[in-house]
């Protein structure tokens, strides 16, 4: 998202960035005060040379801007945690579909239960 990449902030793109910020506010239920905070931050800190969300968040923390631009910082943190793709989830479903074709419901249910509960295995003190 160019809106959170200071190197890509441009004067002519400021209206487009504000629209993108408004859309993010609407989508994630963040107060619209972010639009104002974004305008102030990008105007005052436009010289920042951050390349990523991580750099921007680090910059805001180091310079105590996370308190000054609280809503903007919260939105940036939220956007930084949104997965870029759903490939891991899709890959898992694909594997289950392949396995599902070759076994009964009962066996599949038991295998899923073993997999889900594998971290809860009791330790009997037996070593290999």
For the secondary structure, the number of strands is 0
Domain tally: 2
Helix content bin: 55-70%
- Average pLDDT rating: 76
User: What's the shape?
Assistant: elongated
Distance between the termini: 51 Å
SS element count, helices: 7
Question: Uncertain runs with pLDDT below 50, 5 residues or more?
Answer: none
Strand content: under 5%
Radius of gyration over all CA atoms, rounded: 23 Å
Structural class: mainly alpha
How would you describe this protein?
This protein is mainly α and 128 residues long. It folds into two domains: 80 residues, no CATH class; 33 residues. Helices cover 62% and strands 0% of the residues. It is built from seven helices and no strands. The model has no long low-confidence stretch (mean pLDDT 76).
Show the helix and strand layout.
Elements: H1 14-28, H2 33-44, H3 53-62, H4 65-68, H5 70-81, H6 87-100, H7 105-116
Helix pairs in contact: 1-2, 2-5, 3-5
């Amino acid at each position: 998202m160019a809106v959170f990449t200071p190197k890509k902030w441009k004067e002519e793109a400021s209206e487009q960035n504000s629209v993108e910020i408004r859309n993010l506010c609407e989508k994630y239920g963040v107060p619209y005060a972010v639009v104002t905070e974004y305008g102030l931050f990008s105007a005052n800190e436009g010289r920042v040379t951050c390349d990523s969300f991580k750099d921007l968040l680090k910059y805001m923390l180091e310079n105590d801007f996370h308190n000054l631009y609280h809503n903007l910082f919260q939105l940036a943190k939220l956007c930084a945690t949104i997965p870029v793709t759903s490939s891991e989830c899709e890959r898992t479903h694909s594997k289950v579909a392949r396995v599902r074709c070759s076994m009964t419901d009962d066996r599949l249910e038991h295998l899923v239960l073993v997999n889900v509960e594998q971290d809860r295995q009791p330790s009997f003190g037996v070593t290999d």
